Amino acid sequence: MPLPDADKKSPRVYTLSQNTDLENIAFATIQSIGQPINIEEMNEDELRRLVLVNLARLSVKGEWEGLLDAGGGGGLNQLGILGGSTYDTWDLSVAAPYGIALRDTDSVDDEPCFQPFLAPNTGTIDAVTIGVSSAAASTCNLKIGFYNADETTGLPTTIIASCDIDLTSTGDIRQTSFTGTPSLTKNTLYYAAYCRSTSVAATVRSAKSSYAPGAGPTNSTEDTKTHLELQSSNNTLPSTVTASDLETTNSECPSILLEW
Length: 260
Fold this sequence. Notes:
Elements: H1 13-17, H2 27-34, H3 44-61, E1 90-91, E2 103-107, E3 113-118, E4 123-124, E5 127-134, E6 141-149, E7 156-166, E8 171-175, E9 179-180, E10 183-184, E11 189-196, E12 203-207, E13 227-230, E14 246-249, E15 253-254, E16 257-259
Antiparallel strand pairs: 1-16, 2-12, 3-11, 3-13, 4-10, 5-8, 5-12, 5-16, 6-7, 6-11, 7-9, 12-15, 13-14
Helix pairs in contact: 2-3
């Protein structure tokens, strides 16, 4: 049965997709069929057929590539454009839905802290940049690591890659050398972990948490708990996180700028 009030003849969508079952038709095929179609009233029937075929394909395949991952007009998909432009960086400390877009400066903890983020791009991170506002008086590095998240609990699990950034000078410090390969997948949950390598004071550009009263009088002056802190691994990033040693914290997350 044709679409309501539509011409029975399909000059493009059904002609080019005929004899292909829904299980095997790829999103790339849908793209190649649809891209030459101009968005105008005379093509309304073909545009409706294109949407119908793609929705049927998605329902059969049980995935939503093409609506959530390829292109899109908002939400998390718009973040992907920041990963593909020369010289652009992406700050995981202030990105939705976990980040807080208030700028500040703060010292770095001895205990590893974990900031959740959704990767805006699929690929390998080329560089990480940190802004140091007050330098360390002696040898001290900011240790940054990227961790997988457990699909069930959402907690950090195993380290993917890490790097050290020298805190003995001020300004924007860019690091391109990693231990491991920092390869991420778009819209997947990860954690960025960070701590200082030695107990030497240094201040970095950070994302400040907003003030919010706690649940009771004893917590009335505490900030909102924004991320996690590991209690058993001072001044080093573990290869595997012990979930029972994690607790919530309100310390500020360094402004961690990523490049792809």
